[in-house]
């Protein structure tokens, strides 16, 4: 009897000590309970992961299920790495269960433009010349995403050597706009913008010289930011060709893409900073974004790219073909055909504001088929 009583008391003591931790995972916040994995923001996904509403394995499985269902219509990827992603998701869950924190993106599925080198994963930059290129090292920006705990879903499509405002190449074919498969998603980070809009990942690593982040974000109704030159290291970006000496860039930058403006800040904070070899001599940190006065915010939406969330607007549809942010049948007229892209870009270069640059001034709507 004494032994049984002692065991019973020890069990009660153990339960009382564990109660705060059990409560933390069995009673997630209201926001975490409302989490919808298809089109939620990266912030919402990370909250759900932290609070145990969803595991990294479950979230990654959902992403790949959406890819299997919807990607044939939009063709957003050059290379997918499901086995590698699921194994890393398993490791992320085990690390979290043991109390380890990989970083700010722990267990989050993300996308990488196929212009950035990825260790052990084919990197083509859309060129037949690099169709079998498998780098040994990650680009600096890719390494930072991984170091923060991100899970790479795959490499997104682009024009050859990221040199166009559409997303076609001979390796992977043409990427279509997920809101209307008869339209272009823009380029050169068109595969990434289309994948975000279709719910194939939560963040994208893109690059931009003259609109390669901003244009596809506007065409696909997502968010993108072209950072100041050298805020995000571009070492490991193609071009230049692998193995060549990197020279000073001509306004080319790496930058974040996401489904919310808040997520852009998060990704940029992960990506930003001097190159590793330069960090031995000096370091710097991005300042926190400042909120503009209300009188300024009322005059103009404070979004450099993507869609404007108007009062009463909803979210993306449950599939790439369903309605969009403002549920008006306008996308077909807002997104130009590939033949018009060159003229629009020329107009923009001449000092006039084109549709392709009008992100903050226009709300992108979806089309019901």
Question: What are the main properties of this structure?
Answer:
single chain; two-stranded antiparallel sheet; 369 residues; 8 strands; Amidase signature (AS) enzymes; globular
Structure description:
The structure is a single chain. The chain has 369 residues and is α/β, with parallel strands linked by helices. It has a domain at 30-280: Amidase signature (AS) enzymes (Alpha-Beta Complex), CATH 3.90.1300. It contains 12 helices and 8 strands. The chain has helices at 2-26, 30-33, 42-50, 56-74, 82-97, 140-147, 190-198, 214-220, 261-271, 294-299, 331-334, 338-349, and strands at 77-80, 109-113, 151-156, 168-169, 173-174, 203-208, 223-224, 253-258. The strands form 2 sheets. Strands 1-3-2-6-8-7 form a 6-stranded mixed beta sheet, sandwiched between helices. The chain has a two-stranded antiparallel ribbon with strand order 4-5. β2, α6 and β3 (151-156) form a beta-alpha-beta unit. α4 (56-74) runs antiparallel to α5 and α7 runs parallel beside α8 (214-220). It is globular and about 70 Å long.
Summarize the structure.
The chain is of the alpha/beta class and 369 residues long.
């Amino acid at each position: 009897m004494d032994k049984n009583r002692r065991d019973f008391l020890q069990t009660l003591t153990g339960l009382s000590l564990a109660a705060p931790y059990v409560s933390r995972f069995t009673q997630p916040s209201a926001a975490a309970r409302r989490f919808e994995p298809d089109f939620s923001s990266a912030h919402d996904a990370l909250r759900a992961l932290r609070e145990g509403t969803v595991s990294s394995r479950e979230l990654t499985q959902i992403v790949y299920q959406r890819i299997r269902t919807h990607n044939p219509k939009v063709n957003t990827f050059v290379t997918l790495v499901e086995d590698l992603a699921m194994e890393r998701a398993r490791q992320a869950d085990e690390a979290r269960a043991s109390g380890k924190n990989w970083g700010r993106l722990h267990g989050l599925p993300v996308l990488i433009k196929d212009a950035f080198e990825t260790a052990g994963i084919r990197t083509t930059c859309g060129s037949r010349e690099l169709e079998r290129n498998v780098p040994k090292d990650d680009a600096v920006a890719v390494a930072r995403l991984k170091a923060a705990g991100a899970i790479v879903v795959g490499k997104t499509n682009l024009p050859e050597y990221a040199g166009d405002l559409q997303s076609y190449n001979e390796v992977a074919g043409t990427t279509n706009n997920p809101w209307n498969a008869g339209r272009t998603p823009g380029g050169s980070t068109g595969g990434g913008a289309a994948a975000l809009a279709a719910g194939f990942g939560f963040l994208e690593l893109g690059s931009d010289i003259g609109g390669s982040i901003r244009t596809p974000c506007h065409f696909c109704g997502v968010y993108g930011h072209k950072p100041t030159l050298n805020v995000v290291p571009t070492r490991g970006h193609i071009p230049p060709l692998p193995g060549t000496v990197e020279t000073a860039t001509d306004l080319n930058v790496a930058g974040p893409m996401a489904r919310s403006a808040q997520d852009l800040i998060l990704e940029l904070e992960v990506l930003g900073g001097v190159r590793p070899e330069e960090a031995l001599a000096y370091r710097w940190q991005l300042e926190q974004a400042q909120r503009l006065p209300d009188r300024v915010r009322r005059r103009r939406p404070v979004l450099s790219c993507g869609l404007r969330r108007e009062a009463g607007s909803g979210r993306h549809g449950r599939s790439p073909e369903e309605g969009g942010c403002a549920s008006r049948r306008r996308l077909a007229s807002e997104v130009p055909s590939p033949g018009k892209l060159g003229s629009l870009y020329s107009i923009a270069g001449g000092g006039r504001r084109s549709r392709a640059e009008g992100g903050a001034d226009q709300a992108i709507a979806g089309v019901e088929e």
